[in-house]
Design a protein that fits this description.
Layout lengths: L4 H24 L5 H21 L2 H20 L4 H19 L1 H12 L1
Keywords: Membrane, Transmembrane, Transmembrane helix
Length: about 110
Amino acid sequence: MKERTILKGVMSLTIIVEIIMMIWVYNVIGEERLTVQFIRLIFQLVLMLLILKQKSNIALWILVGFHVFSGLMNWAAINSGIVGQILSVYHFVIAGIICFYDDIEKKLLSEKV
């Protein structure tokens, strides 16, 4: 369990998705939203470093809350369309996996043995 493989994989996926969203937003809207996207990425990276280096449970729950909040905001957007709804579901799933990564790893490791 010390490896936290599931958690590291989810965090890697989150970074990739955030970078893709930054590029997409820049291409669609322009650079006025780029600052906000960059701050989101830095905020998540700081939390991820705290989680991985210091095993911070507080940072873990803040990251979960961030994903739930982002999912709710995307879902509540008036003109979010299908992309907004997909992003909402993505954020909710990521939050759930982060919450229960330890249980998921235990279950996967018990099935391997």
